[in-house]
Specification:
Length: 231
Amino acid sequence: MIMQQIVEDAWLLALGNGNAILLRQGKELALIDAGFPGKEQIVFDAISKLGRRPSDLKHLVFTHGHPDHIGSAAAIIRATGARTYMHAADAPLAESGGPFRPMAPAPGLVHALMYKLVWDQNERMQPFPIDQHIADGETLPILGGLHAIHVPGHCAGQVALMWRGGRLLLGGDTFINILGVSDPIAFENEAEGRASQRKLAALDFQAVAFGHGKAITKDAPGKLRRFVARR
């Protein structure tokens, strides 16, 4: 299991083709995203490494409703009873389990190849209920405050999450950081996606993590801004 500490009380969990983020605030634990199906044991092992039990996970927050972010959610909820949070535009994806909205690959040959390898609009996930919808600009009253920013484009209901006053930004799939900062594999709406990239790049934060690739802990805003300037 790869469990990378990003900042104090925040860990990136590498779930194969995607990431989840485990956050701790005192006795409170929350998970951001849940990976593809079959990844729940990685999450439970990470919780154990912190000296906690799966039942200590109280919140499951989703950046968006694609299969690589919701696939293990139903299993995690059964084991933990965690409360779930997602933007209203994507909640129907979680509650139906698919199919998913069409996308087009981001510019470039690598993105086109990756898109063909990993995206299946008709893929089905085990459905689960969303307990609370997330609104743009809302601060969820968990973990001392988790601030939501609507960043559509890759997915209509995608949100980024700012924690501890800018100490950590969780960007979903607004960008990825596999071989450096780049576009997500695909967009539902590229123009909206570009606007969302500019929105996040304009923010001030210490570290950032995305749904794919490594977290960035040095010059994080600068790396996003330089990428956006080239688009």
